[in-house]
Amino acid sequence: MRKFVAHRAKKLITNATASLFNPHHQSSSSSSNQYYTSARLARFFTSLPSDTSMASDKSTPPLTVDSLNPKVLKCEYAVRGEIVSLAQTLQQDLQANPGSHPFEEILYCNIGNPQSLGQQPITFFREVLALCDHPTILDKSETQGLFSADSIERAWQILDQIPGRATGAYSHSQGIKGLRDTIAAGIEARDGFPADPNDIFLTDGASPAVHMMMQLLIRSEKDGIFCPIPQYPLYSASIALHGGTLVPYYLDEATGWGLEVSELKKQLEAARQKGITVRALVVINPGNPTGQVLAEQNQRDIVEFCKKEGLVLLADEVYQENIYVPEKQFHSFKKVARSMGYGDKDIPLVSFQSVSKGYYGECGKRGGYMEVTGFSPEVREQIYKVASVNLCSNISGQILASLVMSPPKVGDESYDSYFAERDGILTSLARRAKTLEDALNSLEGVTCNKAEGAMYLFPQVKLPNKAIKEAEKAKKAPDAYYAIRLLNATGIVVVPGSGFGQVPGTWHFSSWMSSVIRSDSFFFFFEREKRLDTMIHLDVVRHLKKCHALVVPLNDTSIRE
Amino acid sequence: MRKFVAHRAKKLITNATASLFNPHHQSSSSSSNQYYTSARLARFFTSLPSDTSMASDKSTPPLTVDSLNPKVLKCEYAVRGEIVSLAQTLQQDLQANPGSHPFEEILYCNIGNPQSLGQQPITFFREVLALCDHPTILDKSETQGLFSADSIERAWQILDQIPGRATGAYSHSQGIKGLRDTIAAGIEARDGFPADPNDIFLTDGASPAVHMMMQLLIRSEKDGIFCPIPQYPLYSASIALHGGTLVPYYLDEATGWGLEVSELKKQLEAARQKGITVRALVVINPGNPTGQVLAEQNQRDIVEFCKKEGLVLLADEVYQENIYVPEKQFHSFKKVARSMGYGDKDIPLVSFQSVSKGYYGECGKRGGYMEVTGFSPEVREQIYKVASVNLCSNISGQILASLVMSPPKVGDESYDSYFAERDGILTSLARRAKTLEDALNSLEGVTCNKAEGAMYLFPQVKLPNKAIKEAEKAKKAPDAYYAIRLLNATGIVVVPGSGFGQVPGTWHFSSWMSSVIRSDSFFFFFEREKRLDTMIHLDVVRHLKKCHALVVPLNDTSIRE
């Protein structure tokens, strides 16, 4: 444990070790049991005291879990699944009984949520949002002192684009036309090819847009959607909810999560042999959770493949601003297709964008859009209808989506501060990506590909056979078992690779790179000491002055090989 | 046409009449054709020029409308359906070619969207939202001059409830816990019975909450959801999208849209005979589009019925603040159930609330919640999972949902202005409801029940047999035909009753009562002159100084009886 071990750390290690070595070890709280059963987790969601919630009653509850929609039961969403529910329960324990667990707080690395850990929003964006929320202050003299001149000007521009300047009115089902104009102009500037505001559908984040496309395309379990493995679990969840079949294509870990067209061909053939009609191909670029950035030639091959096979190309491009290596650049699939000479009629293509990612990180604002090209008017009409059923996406999110596609420009009053804020965030993300990647690769039994983009790392962990057998006994995937033990011992929330998909027999976990975004120097990292079954978590950042080390799950003789 | 006819009106009538009498009549714009074909409407949604959009191409488009999910094709959403698409096309025509239609602007009465027509938001709510969007100004001296003291205090309170004060972070999947505490307290204060924050799921308006419940409950077309007829088309759309069966129960127009338990029993029996498992009962109170407010005894009967038959009670209570008659009061179904002695385990009950309605009318903010009681922990866990797949609802909407459930109180700095704003809106709504109801009832061939609550009137219109036959020829429901002609002649957008459901052989339309909210004296109204087939629209408000009359659809000899 070397120099990081302090008195406090020793105490924490003692607690952690006790609970890890002895499953019956009880601390001051009864909640410190090592594992939470699903029944116990379920109780977390109910308002009833646990001892009465299932009590018998004169009236039989009319609804049992077995009588629910089986598609809902089948759906899994790992990034907010069992691990996160357990984390929330532990967090409640910690609040109710401080000291009841061998850590002081929960470190959520399950999902990229930058502002939850102190990343500051871009000032200009928030100024504009505040002014649009409360336009009556726009004319007041105090406002000049509080807000930048260009934010005031932009707010006026946006209000003028909204019929009646009513930011509290339902908009057009696709979103406010003027904001779509701005977004289309932003896409044109990015790609160098025309974009049409009528192709833009503004949505509450990218997730509802993905659902909308799945709803449109999936008729039955005989319809397949091609997804990368590993994939972001939104796709598997949405396909399950809509009753389709996820057709996997494997990214090649050995070549930095490469996407090979030969693999696509092989898997498409296999799916067709099973009677599956593959309708669309999901590509996530930059990759989530894998962090690779596709080469342009690779993108061309994918476009050609979709064209030839008649697949709708669903391009998840929400990390388009998150690129960390100088040798890679983001190219939208639309730009690639257009540069190949394919026009609107040649290939059906949907590009998803979100305000939650990039340097903006405005997850809670739920803004996003999809750009829909290459569909017939009749199909488009159906997309419009589905969008209409929810009336419109939230206007603040719509405004923010227009802002991220048209930030301040050179010469604007806010430009310098905007650029500094943006650059600070992106530089810090790049540094942390590299730090974490190096830290993970320095560990015996852990390998991690280069983080070229996005916000996550997806290291492979070699687990001892005995640990795998223990997991089987507990009816958990080995990496889920690992993640639960990691959480119980350290408070760190990672998502097991099995939630994303992985080559059978390999085990991974996904970790958001920014969980200690408050510091710009280190990410948490793991260091193995001596043996494969002893991993040390050095949380040097969150407790900078009193560094401590925590023994994490594999330091448990019961599962040591 | 009496005294309202002016020179300008005559010209407009001439135009309108010409186009009504002669389907080949062309005005300066080619867009003034009397009806828009669905192909033409479809073109509205595409970016392609109409003459090339369907041109043949080397590559066959892989996706045709016939190959889409049939549930999507089946889904209809009348309040933003064909009529609204036509209205948008006409609006574009008017912009491109002013004078191309016999009206100057489109009057959207299809949906309650108060701020789109100038209803001002509650100042206190917007102050708090702006401060939460841009919290860095909270400490600045200028802010004291711009914002009320209690809005600043409330913003601090809310920020303190958000982990890291991060309004740009994803929240808990059910919404920010502190805001759910506030909402639960608001429900308790409203009902006099306990409410649990763990029962609250914050959503982007009420619509996604309704979808979530349908997704949970519907397994196949053999599962039925009981809905009032007429109903708000969200329900029929959502049931269609999820592949279930809408089981109708008819509200009794003769008794003010009464909901009779005998009718429920009859329809339940009929559905069961057809092999339908009825899983839930939707009640909309106050009624949409029918405007009735249920009597408490009636609510008790409904609760008892659901309990006895094992139905989930889905209570759409989004108009709870919109009651216009002194003899009626809003009682939540949860309050009614609890006052009958039924606890959490006795009846599964979901109450939907939204920030879009009431006196707040914040449709564009997409805030809302559902309060979920009486489900087993296992079922609750599934609801939580589905909520998690979209991560969380937008934070501004969440904040607003907490504000509408805990507005300023007596003694707060903002209370007087808040009360005046609220009272002004509700008083004006009540006056307009009465004015419109009286105006409609004064027309021969039109009958309209009392508008006790909500925001719409749903008059019955007796259509001439010849008009019905013309509609059949055009393959339109007679009331849809009426609505299209009304729109083409006057620019007024109403929704045909067939989009909501109605007793076969009766015809209605739904009109938002607030379309002229800018005035507090009159709503648009119809006046019949001499004969059933001549209806005069007296738009005395929007053109107050140059009153004019427009002959609306039925004044067409081609469809006169």
TrEMBL record, chains A, B:
Organism, as annotated: Lactuca saligna
Documented EC number(s):
2.6.1.2
Q: Is Nucleotide-binding a UniProt keyword of this protein?
A: no
Q: What is this protein called?
A: alanine transaminase
- Cite the GO molecular-function annotations of the record: L-alanine:2-oxoglutarate aminotransferase activity; pyridoxal phosphate binding
Which top-rank group of organisms is this from?
A: Eukaryota
Give UniProt keywords alphabetically. Answer: Aminotransferase, Pyridoxal phosphate, Transferase
Protein family according to the UniProt entry: Belongs to the class-I pyridoxal-phosphate-dependent aminotransferase family. Alanine aminotransferase subfamily.
The record ties this protein, via SUPFAM superfamilies, to: PLP-dependent transferases (SSF53383)
Q: How does it assemble?
A: Homodimer.
**All residue ranges annotated as the Aminotransferase class I/classII large domain in the record:** 164-502
Q: Please name the pathway.
A: Photosynthesis; C4 acid pathway; Amino-acid degradation; L-alanine degradation via transaminase pathway; pyruvate from L-alanine: step 1/1
CC cofactor: pyridoxal 5'-phosphate
